[in-house]
């Protein structure tokens, strides 16, 4: 079920976005239902990544999915995700966020990471990511820690008059 994505410009929604999300300890129908709601909400907003706190659930779950050509990201759910390694090489790229519609900025992040997490059934997953997926995972884990991309932006935030290609996460 699609849920409303919290907006940083609304003060009580911003205070939820600044909360530190709690680890998920029980796995079952409610974990799968949360993941489904997150995909529905993310798809409705045409985003490519989402953290549970962005739909008002301060629990450590993130999702990502991007099916357009080139940098495709498979449908992915990570529970209690942790970054276990990140590359020294960093990339400065444009980033947007579903909680800041049509606001963008340049954020520097490690180009590659390895991560560890649980799937919605509580099984351990380990993986590596680069490019857009690495950026999404880092952005969403920041959300779980109450960190927003505007905290990391280099230079000014900006908007576009017309549609641009950067996906919000
Ligand atoms: Zn975001």
Task: Explain what this protein looks like in three dimensions.
By secondary structure, the protein is of the alpha+beta class. The protein has one domain: Peptide Deformylase (Alpha-Beta Complex), CATH 3.90.45. It contains three helices and eight strands. A five-stranded antiparallel β-sheet has the order 1-2-3-6-7. The longest helix has 16 residues. The chain is globular, with a radius of gyration of 15 Å. The relative contact order is 0.21. The structure holds zinc ion (ZN). Zinc ion binds next to helix 3.
Secondary-structure map:
Elements: H1 11-17, H2 29-44, E1 49-51, E2 61-66, E3 73-86, E4 90-97, E5 100-110, E6 112-118, E7 124-130, H3 131-144, E8 154-158
Antiparallel strand pairs: 1-2, 2-3, 3-6, 4-5, 5-8, 6-7
Bound molecules: zinc ion.
């Amino acid at each position: 079920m699609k849920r409303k994505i919290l907006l940083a410009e609304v003060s009580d929604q911003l205070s939820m976005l600044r909360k530190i999300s709690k680890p998920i300890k029980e796995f079952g129908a409610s974990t799968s239902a949360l993941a489904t709601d997150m995909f529905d909400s993310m798809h409705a907003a045409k985003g490519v990544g989402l953290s549970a706190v962005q739909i008002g659930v301060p629990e450590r779950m993130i999702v990502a999915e991007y099916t357009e050509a080139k940098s495709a990201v498979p449908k992915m759910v990570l529970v209690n995700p942790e970054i276990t390694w990140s590359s020294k090489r960093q990339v400065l790229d444009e980033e947007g966020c579903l909680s800041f519609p049509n606001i963008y900025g340049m954020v520097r992040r490690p180009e590659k990471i390895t991560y560890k997490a649980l799937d919605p059934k509580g099984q351990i997953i380990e993986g590596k990511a680069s490019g857009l997926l690495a950026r999404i995972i880092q952005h969403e884990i920041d959300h779980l820690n109450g960190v927003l991309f505007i905290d990391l932006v280099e230079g000014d935030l900006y908007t576009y008059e017309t549609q641009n290609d950067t996906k919000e996460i």
